[in-house]
UniProtKB/TrEMBL annotation:
This is Cardiolipin synthase (CMP-forming). Coiled coil: none annotated. It catalyses: a CDP-1,2-diacyl-sn-glycerol + a 1,2-diacyl-sn-glycero-3-phospho-(1'-sn-glycerol) = a cardiolipin + CMP + H(+). Catalyzes the synthesis of cardiolipin (CL) (diphosphatidylglycerol) by specifically transferring a phosphatidyl group from CDP-diacylglycerol to phosphatidylglycerol (PG). CL is a key phospholipid in mitochondrial membranes and plays important roles in maintaining the functional integrity and dynamics of mitochondria under both optimal and stress conditions. It is found in: Mitochondrion inner membrane. GO terms for cellular component: mitochondrial inner membrane. It is a multi-pass membrane protein.
Length: 200
């Protein structure tokens, strides 16, 4: 049983809140403001990780799931909206969304399996009951970084006029490769990425 209201968790929730704002700005083709809001979201990501690593009382099992979940929600919204704006291909976005949906489903399954009886809805969705800590694989962290680099590059493309750049298209291929490799790493090392806290 832990306090869910830590600074890193609040920052992760703020990042989730920024996702629809970014999506709206991109669809409306307000790329200058969208780029600024994206930088703000990136700062919250850096801060929550830094605080969780350096202050033990700010680290939580909930945060180990909330931080990557916030990243996945933000990335999914960004890729869908950038695809709507014709800045990222549909095939790449579909690949990323499918991977993230599978990972989120796996998180819900792990939560159910590690929650001690009685498994009621109120206990299942109560963030104070910590049951498992998630440890992303190295390639998954690299994939998230590559995906965010592509988002930043794609957002900046219409602002700095390099939408048809070969470097941007190369980045699409690199992102596709790391996405597939990351999905396989979770499949292969699945059990090693979950540390059960309480399985009584």
């Amino acid at each position: 049983y832990e306090n869910p209201w830590t600074i890193p968790n609040i920052l992760s929730m703020a990042r989730m809140g920024l996702a629809p704002v970014l999506g709206y700005l991109i669809v409306e083709e307000n790329f200058n403001v969208a780029l600024g809001v994206f930088v703000l979201a990136g700062i919250t990501d850096l801060l929550d990780g830094f605080i969780a690593r350096n202050w033990a009382n700010q680290k939580s099992a909930l945060g180990s799931a909330l931080d990557p979940l916030a990243d996945k929600i933000l990335i999914s919204v960004l890729y869908v909206s950038l695809t709507c704006a014709n800045l990222i291909p549909v095939s790449l976005t579909s690949m990323i969304i499918l991977r993230d949906v599978a990972l989120i489903a796996a998180v819900f399954y792990v939560r159910y399996k590690t929650l001690s009886p009685p498994r009621t809805l109120s206990r299942y969705f109560n963030p104070c009951y910590a049951t498992a800590q998630l440890k992303p694989t190295f390639i998954s962290k690299m994939n998230t970084a590559v995906q965010l680099i592509l988002v930043a590059a794609s957002l900046a493309a219409p602002v700095f006029n390099y939408v048809d750049s070969i470097y941007l298209q190369t980045l699409w291929c690199i992102t596709a490769f790391t996405t597939v490799t990351s999905a396989y790493s979770y499949y292969h090392y699945g059990r090693k990425t979950v540390q059960v806290i309480n399985n009584k």
